[in-house]
Amino acid sequence: MSADLKKIQQLRQLTGAGVMDAKRALEKSQGDLTKAKEILRQQGLEKAAKKEGRETNEGYIGVYEHHNGKLVGIVVLLSETDFVARNEKFRQLAHNLAMQVCSVRPESLDDFLSSPYIKDPKLTVKDLLTQAIAVLGENIKIKEATYFEV
Predict the structure, then answer these.
(1) What is the helix (H) or strand (E) element at residue 60, kind and residue range?
(2) pLDDT value at position 1?
(3) Given this model, what pLDDT does residue 45 score?
(4) Mean pLDDT of 1-6
(5) Chain-centre distance of CA 7, in angstroms?
(6) Is residue 97 packed enough to be buried (19+ CB in 10 Å), middle (13-18) or exposed (0-12)?
């Protein structure tokens, strides 16, 4: 079955997957968006597992200041290359994770990774990182997640 362009675009918006990945997932699922999303999720987990051991020597510091000016979250997000560290999606991820730090105020990095993501409580921060690894194609790690509060 050939996937139509509208469904491919819809799946890409939902998952951030590439055109060909979305097309193959839709063909494999016979046009079922829910099944195609699951196929892409599984592929993302496999991609992330393959990249897990790679060194992360580049990165970006994400900062979020709460509207009252009394709380700041900081995340040091690492990637394999400077190319990804300069990517807008990577920087947006760092910002969102810094916002997450303000919300969760974690005591440790493990607490932070296991916390439900504030923008989608069905995901944990670790799940969000796995998705980002699949989309950006590089290993991504959080080196530090901290906050300062007045």
Answers:
(1) strand 58-65
(2) 42
(3) 67
(4) 65
(5) 22
(6) buried
**74, 147 contact by CB (below 8 A):** yes
pLDDT averaged over the chain?
A: 88
CA-CA distance, 106 to 149, in Å (whole number)?
A: 13
H/E segment holding residue 3: none
Q: Where exactly are the structural domains of the chain? A: 5-51, 58-149
By C-alpha distance, which of 106, 107, 87 is closest to 98? 106
- What was the pLDDT predicted at 117? 96
Task: Provide the CATH number for the domain formed by 5-51 in this structure.
Answer: 1.10.8.10
Whether 87 shows a pLDDT value over 90: the answer reads: yes
Looking at 69-114, which runs of residues are DSSP E strands?
A: 71-79
CATH code, 58-149:
3.30.479.20
